[in-house]
Amino acid sequence: MPTLTIDGRQIESPDGSTVIQAAEKLGIFIPRYCYHPGLSIAGNCRICLVEVEKNPMLQISCNTPVTEGMVVHTKSDKAEDGRRAVLEFLLANHPLDCPVCDQSGECDLQNFYMNFGLYDPRFREQKVKKKKAVAIGPHVMLDQERCILCSRCVRFADEITKTGEFGIFDRGDRAQLGLYPGQRLDNPYSANVVDICPVGALTEQDFRFKARVWYLSSAPTVCNGCAQACNVDIHYVLDRPHLNDGARILRLKPRYNADVNQWWMCDEGRYGFGWVDKGRLTRVRHQGVDSTWERAIAAIAAALGKLRENGTGSRIGVIASTQLTNEELFLIREIFEIGMGARVTASGPIPPGDSDDFLIKADKNPNTLGAKLLVSSEPGAPAVPTILDEALQGRIEALWVFGHDLTRFVDEKTLQELSRTLRLFIFSGTNENPTAGWSHWSLPTAAYVEKDGTFVNGHGRIQRIGRAFPPLADSREDWRVLLEIARELDHPMAWRNPQEIFVGLARAVAPFAGLSYEAIGSQGVALDLPASAITSAATRQNASASASEATAGKSREGGPNAPGVAAP
Amino acid sequence: MAVKVMRKRELTSWEKLYVPQILSGLKITSVHFFRNLSLHIAHSLGLLKHLPASVTFQYPEQPRPLAARFRSRHRLTVRDEGTPRCVGCMLCETVCPAKCITIVAGEHPDPNVEKYPVRFDIDLGVCVYCGYCVEVCPEDAIRMDTNILDVAAYSRTDMKLDIHELMDPALRKPLAACHCNLNFPHVCRLSGGQVKGDWNEIYPEASWTKD
Predict the structure, then answer these.
(1) Residues of chain A falling short of pLDDT 50
(2) What is the residue range of A292's domain?
(3) Model ipTM over 0.85
């Protein structure tokens, strides 16, 4: 391991690593456009120039390997002058589009110009005109004039998705980024090129002109789109409802997690947030008439309490959801399964879908494994159709459905019959659906971005989701509803929030032992599970998804020149 | 610290006489009184109209002259073809300390313009007339040079200017039975808050459509 000195501080860096990586470890930021830790080294933007002693020329730090005794200056006048000159070249043909450019506010050309550029432009010639506002795929918009030809997107398409749509064509100042003839940027990870584009050349069509980035607030959470549970940041606006027709979420951005999604996420997850603001249940309803939470909790608890007193707790059916957090599933287990002996099952409200060997998993629910660990873990646990059959035959009198649309299992006529035969039929969920319509009590609950909690992904990794903003209108978090029901049922629980519930959970359920929110942190923790538990969860959801994960995981730990994922 | 001794000026003997000083004061008042009186009489006879009778401005018949830099009601500047010069960058909305500007941006068919305001409202009941929006605008799209001072309405919602009044200062409040004359797509309050207008009307033979 060579030891080198950067800005007067010594650092040991592994053989083959580069100066920019060593500087990163010291917390020294060197400007970069073409360098991306997840991609191969191109070394073409030249903005990462540093001064290396005993070397007559400035060196690009992204492609200069560390050597023993190297002395590097990143902030010397010579290095800054060099970078300023590079920036002037990069900006020579860059249009002054900032007022209309969606990147402005998070644009590295703007940032670095304000950080160390600040020169008076000397380019008096006509700027080269290229194509603007070209939709190159379902999600991405290309502006060739704004491109600085860093080739990050080209390398992403070549190395990560291996679809190779992008190319840089022509020479000199006419060089332009484009797609190969006949190609469209429609791979399932296409919008990642927007994230890695350091300028405004590639922008999102979905987010286009909706807001300026400085209006956005950000909250870390985990995508609920599939069992991979990619780490994401929710970008939302609460104080300017006119921007997006009142919708709060404006976009999702992947958040780095070396063990889950690295820097990437799929388009399906990225654009799958529409339901959070559209078609939501907003009022407690009883038999189709608006009601209140107080009445609903009292009535439901009274009905459930009667069943419990009669010793007929097994006549209660609960269809829990794998979209619920571990804390909520734990409460369902404590109140219904253990407290009353109810028939509890957990199932995914979203049917399985496509999968690949990278991030997309067939199981489209984020907490299937958590649900398996917490409820319905016994071999004889009933399935959803069994519970519905029993309800139709009158052996179940009270049914609580969490988030499911039962029309996936039975037709609407049967649903109508259920509504007639059941003495108590409760639906709690986020969005309007036929089950909410036919249920006796329809309770609006919070979406995953409106509550705290944890999910266990398909690989047995427990990760925290975070509350970005309060629940919409009259809706409440499922855990709050369950705690109130428990209190009404004289089964009081001392917990006041998901964090405290999780402490109780960690004490009661073996795989979670010793964990807390602090221990899970922002990057999650791999649960100590037998391999069979993980694979059975995956196969149950008809997924061959995690099969190649082991090999993929290995190649991810490679050096900067071996990025991304192994070939399929 | 030096002490400066102020001495009261002694009155002259002429001043000490008292009456001449009173009369000289009365003279000034009388000159103005009789000048204004005769000028008002002359004005009512249609004479000497170019000479002002008094310093009072006969507002609103006679508008007060304003300084060139005076900040009056806003307007949006207009391109030759009748669309707003604004590109919807929302810098004015960002900088506005009163948060009285509301912009919703849309896609302009010309890729060299790209963006334009579908909706642009200023709530004059909230505006503090600081002029930051004019300062910050990169396109010279908003100005405060209409010289309109009499902004008044019967309700708070009527104090909101939308893109119609902003693009055409001649449209004055209250907007009674006024027709929408904007032909680009915009949120049209005059026809019920719907998006109204069509780009093809403005650019029937646009160069960028023939690609």
Answers:
(1) 539-568
(2) 285-540
(3) no
